[in-house]
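Teaching assistant here, posting this on the class forum so everyone can see the example we discussed in section. The complex has two components, and the goal was to see what a joint structure prediction looks like when all of them are supplied at once.
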Amino acid sequence: MLGDELYVIISRDVNVNHKPTPIIPENQRRMMVAALKPVDFALLGSLTDYFEPISEINPDIVVLGFDQKFQEKELEDALNERGFFPKVIRLSKADSNGEGEFYSSRRIAAEIIERKNKNQEID
Amino acid sequence: MLGDELYVIISRDVNVNHKPTPIIPENQRRMMVAALKPVDFALLGSLTDYFEPISEINPDIVVLGFDQKFQEKELEDALNERGFFPKVIRLSKADSNGEGEFYSSRRIAAEIIERKNKNQEID
């Protein structure tokens, strides 16, 4: 347990440039995350300024996913410059992923395409 | 609000015969549903007897999804025979589905295949 309240910032569709555009649109992704028991607040990121939601939340801890592109140190420095001094932590891959075969949307998509190639029905 | 506690019975993989086998295995589906705020308990259905979890829970209300294959009246009669007298309700399609384009796994799968056909990357 890293803190008392969990805020999740949801990537905006237009800001996903390092990988393919998500299939599930940003607001649906936000609602899905907001519906999860451990999550107190789920908010869409800013379209223009990564730091905007962090300024609003003023968190004690910022947690990065294992594959997020930011570097902890750079992010910490940039936050410090803006007058914020949260602890920046990166989750390990083991912390981020479930244990099953289908915890990755890439893996689910691969299975759908495999079933399609075998002419299996998909639902 | 139909009741105070929400139990969700998750279909067993081997019992899904009326449509293609789910991609997400039963235990992962159970954990996903259990993680949702409105859900108090998510349990796997019985492999052999549909009525087993209902006997254990002894619910006041049984809610069917809009596309579940049971008929309300038949289910009610079968439950009455076994000494259970819950109200049986069927959700409307509007109650069951979200409003967006991608609230259906069939629709998500179709989009994945469409992207594949266009040689787009999928993640």
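For the discussion questions: The radius of gyration of chain A is 17 Å. Chain A touches chain B through 31 residues (CB under 8 Å). Think about how each of these relates to the inputs above.
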